[in-house]
Write a structure and sequence with these properties.
The chain is of the alpha/beta class. Helices cover 36% and strands 9% of the residues. Strands 2-1-3-4-5-6 form a 6-stranded parallel sheet, sandwiched between helices. Strand 3, helix 8 and strand 4 form a beta-alpha-beta unit. Helix 2 packs across helix 3 and helix 7 crosses helix 8. The radius of gyration is 23 Å and the shape is globular.
């Protein structure tokens, strides 16, 4: 994974650098644009007033075209290992030029439900009372993240739902939590269930805790299963770069010690009675670091922290791959299929 991620980051950095270089190259004046500035840059004499007008014109032109400085955005939970690649001026990333949203990367998602998900006519059975809602991670989407787990759970008889949120989970996490709350309410109305079980990856395993603590989720959630959740943020220094160069507010909020993380865990209230918590983690997590920071404090009756390598030492899955890892998914199914969190004595089949 590190090789794949590194190559993706290198390609992105190079493309951003190329975009920056193109922005500084000499070019002919645009119609109705910077004619004085073009003459000044080409070596023609001009007054100080001309130079100031030229600078102002270049600034306006840059703002209209959405030009951005070079940088890199390597902090991603997208299983492809890279940021979305669409047409636009920032290294292949589409940038909005609307005044109120200038320099905002277009993080639109396909909006395609994973197999088995979002049948709003589904009714829970006695064997599976609570619908399962799948919550993707930063820069991810429901389409790619859950095409392994969703059909497996559906085949076992669960009502399965998934959502896209927060412009690939790059927006303010508090707003994303409100989106999750509204989606859960829709699921509860459609299915007639009292509560849901939540399964989330990375930010998607942490963000529901904000919904639970601050937005009324304590009465609406039965289980929270986190796959490599950023429960206490990350010390990965690339998160700051992703925030600055990737237009990712959520990346900044997930830095260890951020105001958001402090608020989320204030007073040591990491878990709440009536909700079962399972954290599934790999020691090879290179995105949320240190990996043990993902574990939650709480009584064993409602919290199980799982390190995959404790049962399967040869499992080398990483942060992104954990949502496809057969061992990790066995732990998810164990957690959902019983009262309480995952059974600490459970022995998955190691592959």
């Amino acid at each position: 994974m590190m090789v794949r991620l590194g190559l993706a980051l290198l390609a992105l950095a190079l493309s951003l650098g190329a975009g920056s270089g193109a922005a500084t190259a000499a070019k002919p004046p645009q119609p109705g644009g910077d004619t004085v500035g073009a003459a000044t840059r080409s070596g023609a004499a001009g007054s100080p007033q001309d130079a100031r007008r030229s600078a102002r014109a270049r600034h306006r032109s840059g703002r209209r075209s959405g030009q951005a400085t070079s940088g890199q955005a390597p902090f991603t939970d997208d299983p492809s290992g890279k940021l979305p690649s669409t047409s636009g001026s920032r290294g292949g990333l589409k940038v909005s030029t609307r005044r109120r949203d200038r320099h905002k990367i277009d993080y639109s998602s396909p909006g395609v439900s994973p197999p088995g998900a979002n049948d709003f006519d589904c009714k829970p059975t006695k064997a599976h009372l609570f619908p399962v809602v799948l919550v993707h991670g930063t820069f991810g989407d429901m389409t790619v993240s859950w095409n392994e787990l969703s059909p497996e759970l559906k085949a076992q008889g669960y009502c399965v739902f998934a959502l896209d949120y927060g412009e690939r989970a790059t927006n303010n996490i508090r707003r994303s939590a409100a989106q999750l709350r509204d989606f859960v309410h829709r699921v509860l109305r459609a299915t007639g269930a009292r509560k849901v079980s939540l399964v989330g990856h990375s930010q998607g395993g942490m963000m529901p805790r904000y919904y639970i603590r601050f937005l009324g989720g304590r009465d609406e959630v039965s289980d929270l299963v986190g796959l490599s959740p950023s429960n206490h943020g990350t010390t990965n220094p690339l998160a700051a770069g992703a925030s600055q160069y990737g237009d990712c507010r959520a990346c900044k909020q997930q830095i260890a010690g951020s105001h958001f993380i402090r608020q989320l865990n204030a007073g040591g209230a990491e878990t709440f009675a009536g909700i079962d918590y399972t954290v599934i983690e790999t020691r090879y997590d290179e995105v949320v670091t240190p990996f043990r920071s993902e574990f939650l404090d709480g009584p064993r009756s409602r919290v199980t922290n799982v390190l995959l390598q404790d049962r399967c030492p040869n499992d080398t899955t990483d942060h992104v791959g954990i949502i496809y890892d057969p061992v990790a998914l066995q732990w998810v199914e164990n957690a959902l299929g019983r009262n309480g969190p995952a059974d600490p004595k459970f022995h998955p089949v190691c592959l």
